[in-house]
């Protein structure tokens, strides 16, 4: 009826007198319409059905609102502490100025691009050009989205290693891409002390995943949620596949400054021949404990940055201006505050608090060599299958039920890892719960104390 009304109202005046409803009938039709169900008046795009964008995702299930109020949140990967005071001061200063409160150049504010150039040129072993090689984005997420918009044609395949950061999936499918999954292989459950190095890639499997439609490989090192820092050998293997099949590599390195135990963070862009086909993704939110500021940046050759700039300009136009200034200040002042080394020490201590607790409990886990996540092997945690699980977790993997049980009975929330797999490979993830240690030490110690309560649910085979 509404459609008919709209059509009628578009009829030229001369005809309308003959065909339109009288004002009284029109009002009555509208009244009928408004009493009908209007909650789904406008159909939404079918693209939301892909990429699990409409599915009840793990974040809404394991949301603070669904869990006991005093549950300690080691689920979500954001910090429970503020950015360093000297970085916050830069933000305050920016807010007091005039220009930093207004639009920035879509490439990013010059002060920030210059700071990125100064920090990263030595790391990439080349003089980065602030006009051609650096693009500031609204967090790493939007930078990645813009790369997909700039490079994917409908039906192009994008290879991602599982477990994968869940945002990749809708970002790829919204842009017409088709995700193709290659799992990392977990350590054997029998291994006494696994590290994230024991999660391995099978290069033959990667090669088999390539088809004539493959356009891109997404790499994530240091890895969320495994904590794996890809070795030079592994990266050379991936690079060889990219080179052979002419693939773009999107290297998500948002945890670049969290690499533990003296392990080397190798950038795939620095492997010979790879600069021209690699875009490196960074996040100031991760680096400066400022995930809500939404500042990220891309580094790469002009051939990748220029089309991505065209996309990002039409998606957001520019990123948050005052926070760009603050991040520029952060990068400039970091050496003076010995920031990276201090932060690494703090995160190492946080990681160790959790890992020592798992050792005491006798539970297996993969000691992460990067990022701020630990995967705990929950196969030996037994819970009553008839526990009062909500429907949202009942239909999901064992890990969903285990994490729900741990949250309610132990009071520590974590994230089930099967969420980061496609259906076909979800059983690999079902053995793990992800603990985030981007939390202050007191919170971690309180969580560790509660985790002692797990003892009575541990049953070894
Ligand atoms: C692997 C990975 N990439 C990208 C992001 C998003 O970063 P940003 O907050 O800068 O968008 C995250 C955040 O959790 C992440 O874990």
UniProtKB/TrEMBL annotation:
Occurrences of domain Aminotransferase class I/classII large (ranges): 70-451
Transmembrane segments: none
Entry's Gene Ontology cellular component terms: mitochondrion
Cofactor(s) annotated in UniProt: pyridoxal 5'-phosphate
Keyword line: Aminotransferase, Pyridoxal phosphate, Transferase
UniProt xrefs under SUPFAM superfamilies: PLP-dependent transferases
Stated name of the protein: Pyridoxal phosphate-dependent transferase
Annotated Pfam families: Aminotran_1_2 (PF00155)
KW Transcription (keyword) present: no
Family from the record: Belongs to the class-I pyridoxal-phosphate-dependent aminotransferase family.
One term of GO molecular function: kynurenine-oxoglutarate transaminase activity
The keyword Membrane appears for this protein: no
Highest rank taxon of the organism: Eukaryota
